[in-house]
Description:
Blueprint: H1 4-15, H2 21-29, H3 34-37, H4 46-55, H5 59-71, H6 74-77, H7 84-119, H8 126-157, H9 178-192, H10 201-212, H11 217-272
Amino acid sequence: xxxxxxxxxxxxxxxxxxxxxxxxxxxxxxxxxxxxxxxxxxxxxxxxxxxxxxxxxxxxxxxxxxxxxxxxxxxxxxxxxxxxxxxxxxxxxxxxxxxxxxxxxxxxxxxxxxxxxxxxxxxxxxxxxxxxxxxxxxxxxxxxxxxxxxxxxxxxxxxxxxxxxxxxxxxxxxxxxxxxxxxxxxxxxxxxxxxxxxxxxxxxxxxxxxxxxxxxxxxxxxxxxxxxxxxxxxxxxxxxxxxxxxxxxxxxxxxxxxxxxxxxxxxxxxxxx
Length: 273
């Protein structure tokens, strides 16, 4: 969900001098002009929380916040990284393939090979026996790994703030690296800065140092948001690549392990003939 309705509601209030802000909040939460500006975000989403915060502000401070938001284009500044949906699809397909492959080898292929080998009067090599013995544990590990990867991908999708996202970074954010979480919280704080005070001590110190140099946050917010959003996208892309590499390594390792476990008895049997 985009920020179009939020920005339009801010501009609407500025163009209707004297109107009570409750009417603007009611318009923002209504379905009026939904075909043009999109439906209203859910209650207590990030955009809705910003509107509620501005409703509690003194009139003069609220007018300043509305002016800042009316001149920003948060959809342009907070563009999701290109290919995010494709990466999520790759992760989903790799996870499904890994789970399916381990399940088939553990439940069908290796037990059939053991029965065939025993009927021929041979004993499975030690490596193949160990793979069969540890196959259930390997299947559980694969399920846990796939679950972690998919949950991390879901947490990553909710990290970049959108109008319909929650105020916090989400319940699954603890799965992400601390640097990625910190950058996501930093971007959210900057998005909310016209309406809410910045709570992050490090960011607050940096902004105070910038203003001591004669630069105003109100004038530099657009550039700061763009730069910080790009930094968040770079961190998210690096983490996504890491997830892909982790799953790819698990797939290659599983394939190699099972192939050795299957072909080693066949080679042994062939050499004994």
